Automatic annotation (TrEMBL):
Pfam families: Metallophos
Protein species of origin: Halorubrum yunnanense
Gene3D superfamilies membership: 3.60.21.10
All residue ranges annotated as the Calcineurin-like phosphoesterase domain in the record: 19-138
Protein name: Metallophosphoesterase
Superkingdom to which the source organism belongs: Archaea
Length: 241
């Protein structure tokens, strides 16, 4: 899968000049007794700002589950989303929101568009770039693409008792198209260990053969200097553990 640079819980699609994150679950801190060392808003905004500075993307796309609660979006959550938009706009980056299964109330509360999916086509100067569809992954997208970028599952891998957020990538795994699944951007979600998960457990119609999905882990301690850790596909990876 070419043209993808991995950041901490984010992917940069260089041929589209687009940064993609998924599963912010804004407002989860309000609904939980668990708190981060800093507030939810500051944590999300600071980490997004670091990614925007690093990659300087034209567009930043949130691939669904932008907010956490299904029935309403609180003023505090809207303030956090506005702060994230300010981070992007300060860099000249457009922020695009894609709806996930949690986002049933988002379109009526947010003052910008909320899309069912976001299509990244061939970029200026790169007419051969793949057609990439960014969607949440809880249901099949209506748009056809050469590559799908999703969230929804919150994948992690567990190695010697240590659970780490991971990406899952596979070539020609959904209707002949590539698939890139992102970990949750929020650090309040524990994530789902995919080590022993079979296809049906992923609860996503885009996962037709989980054994062909290969984990990628970014070590947050190494920053930009560290290379992502790439593992064999899950069908082989299970045999190594």
């Amino acid at each position: 899968m070419t043209g993808v640079a991995f950041g901490e819980r984010a992917a940069y699609l260089g041929r589209h000049d687009a940064l993609v994150v998924a599963d912010l679950h804004v407002g989860r801190g309000e609904a939980s007794t668990v708190s981060l060392p800093v507030g939810e808003r500051e944590d999300l905004a600071d980490r997004l700002a670091g990614l925007v500075r690093r990659f300087d993307p034209e567009t930043a796309v949130v691939a669904g589950d932008v907010v956490h609660t299904f029935d309403r979006v609180t003023d505090r959550s809207l303030g956090t989303l506005a702060a994230l938009r300010d981070v992007c706009e300060a860099n000249g980056t457009a922020l695009e929101l894609v709806a996930g299964n949690h986002d049933t109330a988002l379109a009526s509360a947010w003052d910008g568009p909320v899309r069912e999916e976001y299509v990244l086509g061939p970029a200026d100067g790169d007419p051969t770039a793949p057609r990439t569809v960014v969607c949440h992954g809880h249901e099949a997208p209506s748009a056809a693409g050469d590559r799908y970028v999703t969230g929804h599952v919150h994948p992690t891998i567990e190695i010697e008792g240590d659970r780490r957020p991971c990406f899952l990538r596979g070539e020609a795994v959904h209707r002949g198209a590539d698939l890139l699944m992102l970990p949750a951007f929020t650090r309040l979600a524990p994530g789902v260990a995919v080590n022993d998960m079979r296809t049906g457990a992923f609860d996503s119609p885009l996962v037709a053969d989980a054994d062909r999905l290969a984990p990628v882990v970014v070590d947050p301690d190494t920053g930009d200097a560290g290379e992502p850790l790439r593992f064999p596909p899950l069908g082989e990876f299970r045999e190594l553990l």
